[in-house]
Design brief:
Length: 442
Amino acid sequence: MSTDLKRIREKACRERNIVFTSLYHHVTDIDNLRDCYEALDGKKAVGEDGVTKEDYGKHLEENLMDLSLRLKRMGYKPAPKRRVYIPKPGSEKGRPLGISNFEDKIVELAVKRVLEPIYEEAFMDSSYGYRPELSQHDCLDKIGRIVQQKRVNYIVEADIKGFFDKVNHEWMVKFLKHRIGDPRIIRLIIRMLKGGILEDGLVKASESGTPQGSILSPLLSNIYLHYVLDLWFEYKIKKQARGESYYFRFADDFLACFQYKNEAEDFMKRLVDRLEGFNLEVAQEKTQCIEFGRYARENAKKRGEKPKEFIFLGFKHYCGKTKNGYFKIKRSTSGKKFHKSLEEFTNWARKSKNYLTKGEMLRKAKEKVTGHLNYYAITDNSERCSTYIYHATRILLKWINRKSQRKAYTWNGFRQALEHVGWPKPNIRKDLNPFRFVEEAS
């Protein structure tokens, strides 16, 4: 972070309600634009003009000077984003992404670098998604300790239907103006939001939404939900609750934890009205209120039922027990994520046998399995991770042996090859034991 941007963050920290009126010169600064160029990944998908980082860099100083001048005179207009779709469980078409031209990515990153120091000081501790030095594991860790150690008996799991496509531009501008008083920044962001989408050769106007795939989109979505949900829960729901209440949000997925059932159910009802007021809608099929906590298993047993579970951030959360029979929140990889990951691994193995050597397939497969484990190999999930490695190993052997009519490996030979590349084991990568801080303190 440059010295100027550090000063912005320090000022935002000191003066919590300050409105920044002079920011635009940081966006147009050639040194800042050059830093953004260097920071961008040249291997990412290209926009509708087909220009790569390498292409743009052939005349870098000329291009940056021209870009800076266009920004200064407000003559810069972002091109329509190229629509692509990536696989999404339960959707035939897939998840839509908007891919910006390379020059537009530079501007998006420049704006993000100016806004982020301001809003990082404003965001609530309950917000975890797309934030520097915060991850899904941090969110899961806090949830686990709160449910384990506080008076939590009911959980509301909620999701916003098509959030990124329904962000209201007028509300977005109103929210930005709480902290951003430089009209040129606001005007530039409006142009980015309304730049349009190129799909099937036609440009569609963007009347709402902030496209997934844009560098600036995650920050804008956090700003939107900061005002719509985070502050509302902290200063309305929590303040009015008779019992304990807690809230966690990662992007547009969020959980609310309550001590009392009636307060959890009241939150669900109020949530519908709250979202409708900002042109958003609850995804009913992904939203539920369940009994969950230290008494949930016992109460469910009395009713002749199984204790309820919920899915959050790719994990199934359920009421487990310690070795001594006490309540413990436990997690395992959700079925949907487990099968999707194996399906993607199978598709990769089937295709890669045509262009990778055996050694390359083994090393690349190791990277993919390790990537899966780096996220899912957490406390209490070793068994699910072992099962994943078991299936991935056999899938890999199957497709390596189909590289030719003659089998490449026997099982014993394959095991030796796996040992040679250091095939991963289901060791815990992230300790999320909800008791560990209690143990450390004692």
